[in-house]
Amino acid sequence: MTRIPIVGGEIDVSQLGNTLMHEHVFVRTPELQEAWPGFMGWDEEAAIAGAREKLKGLKAAGIDTIVDMTVPGLGRQVQRVARAAEGTGLQIIVVTGYYTYTDLPFPMKYNGPGKLFNNDPDDAFLVDLFVRDVEEGIEGTDIRAGVVKCCTDLPGVTEDIERLIRAVAKTQLRTDVPIMTHTHAKSKRGLDQQRILREEGVDLSRVLIGHSNETADLDYLMEVLDAGSYLGFDRCGLKIDQPLADQQETLAELCRRGYAGQIVLSHDRHCTSDWFPEEGVRAALPEWSYGFIQGSLIPGLLENGVTEDQIDQMMHRNPQAFFAARRDAPAPADSATATAGS
Ligand SMILES: [Zn+2]
User: Is a pLDDT exceeding 90 seen at residue 106?
Assistant: First the structure.
């Protein structure tokens, strides 16, 4: 039995069902909301009610679980997520880590021994923050994180990003929660993440390299897969760098080459955000909606030679295997005492 924390409790890994591995319920900018209440039209009650309807829609469409990849830096607030989830029947896994792809916030700076700010070259304080979310709960609640996240985008492995990846690695090693990442696929950032995580001693099969649909570079994608990690085709319907038809073809080709057992799907969509007006998103990116995977992507894949069984793997069995490794991995000799919730 592998237990996974969700908002409102805990489930066995066998209860995950169809899972979207990288979504966001809310993306919000707390500092701006505090400074200018209602910034970008944010209305707390309307945001929650609107999110609840969208989450209900996902459940009605056959999705059982989503991973809400919103961490600090993206306005994580798990009690708001818990309210949105009420009555939807959808299971939501929340995560820890920090969202930046350049610098950590000022109070988290490392500026050397004996200096004013963080003096600890090992960033133990950062690891302790993440571990607290995993072991005790987030924001004083008993809602625990089921994943730890880091980001590497076009700026590459900056000094702070390297600190963050190493802290995420140490969190994984201490708690055994899996790692899921944000990457810039075109610049092959997944390989940088794997290198640093490997140096820290992380088993790369416990790592999911995210946002990997935004490249057609099969050599890069296979290099990430062959190193043992999962691949997130988790921005489905979102076209930034790569036409959607090419994304679908790349995914079908990876399935043909035998990699369907290491790929998961998602949209990276949000229910409500203060980053962009919803009307603007719909106008600019009409395909980027919660209906895209089931309504467009999967039918297209099936026409393109991907089998129903491979779809089931990507939507259902792979998320299960990814989380289940938490307890299936070699454990200490006294592992018979391992119990739920540890
Ligand atoms: Zn995301």
Answer: no
What separation in Å is there between the alpha carbon of 175 and the centre of ligand 1? 23
Q: Annotate 84-96 with b (16+ C-beta within 10 A) or e (fewer).
A: bbeebebbbbbbb
* Inter-CA distances, 174 with 133, 140, 154, 337, Å: 12, 21, 29, 17
Domains of the chain: 3-325 (3.20.20.140)
Q: How remote is the CA of residue 21 from the centroid of ligand 1, in Å? A: 10
Neighbours of ion ligand 1 (CB under 5 A): 69, 268
pTM: 0.93
pLDDT band at 60 (very low <50, low <70, confident <90, very high): very high
Q: Are 137 and 113 in contact (CB under 8 A)?
A: no
Going from the Cα of 182 to the center of ligand 1, the distance in angstroms, rounded, reads 7
Residue 330: pLDDT over 50: no
Give the Å distance between the CA of 305 and the centre of ligand 1.
29
β-partners of residue 95 are: 147
CA of 238 to the centre of ligand 1 (A): 11
The average pLDDT across 284-306 equals 96
